[in-house]
Amino acid sequence: MITPKKRTASQVGKSNVQTSKVHERRVAHLLTDWTGIEFRRRRVEGRMADTIARDLTGDVIPVDRLCHFNIECKKGQSFSLDAMLASIETCQFTKWYHQSSYDAKLCSEQHKKIFHPMLFFKPVPNWDWVAIPTAALEFLKPLDGHSLIQAMACSQGKFWAPHLIYDAYDRCGEISHNVAHTKKAKNKVMVPLRLQPCFICRWRDFAAHVDPESFLMGDDTCVGDVEKRVLPSE
To answer: What pTM, to 2 d.p., does this model score?
Structure first.
């Protein structure tokens, strides 16, 4: 019997990076098809001010027009719905959502505009799910021709697409997680954030019920024109 050779840490790391790139390209393709606006992977690493001004902080970014969200893409076998109920502050979903929320905060501070976290994740390999804060209903709109039930939900400030509400963060206060791109203890940067409650739904339901135009910012907010994106200081 031939025993498979155990992969080195370097080989595992390269495989994980490649898997992440594939997932990010898929998300960019989904968003491009849905909005009609080109999205691409963010190719520049880091969170320096000039990098955020040029390329934002999300894993996937729009090319010619801004959207309301910082888009984070995650996949992995460590996701657990049970952990979301039993270990709210330490579960994998919270780590992912915390990172997206932190990056959205950096974008908001740099551009003097409000960016919201949007997490694309895979509970299982063939599923595409998204999580957005409940505050996103301030600007998201339903597609024309939606049903009376959906219209009533929208008028009452309720999300009209099939979804789950994860409101556990309301009871947790600030939650701290590592925002540095490293797992080495000496290089970790722990940042406390008060996370917003969120809607969780399948991407196919989100895309089928939300007007893509409401997902995007105005035509004057172009990625390539920093001056147009930064509001004057008060």
So the answer is: 0.81
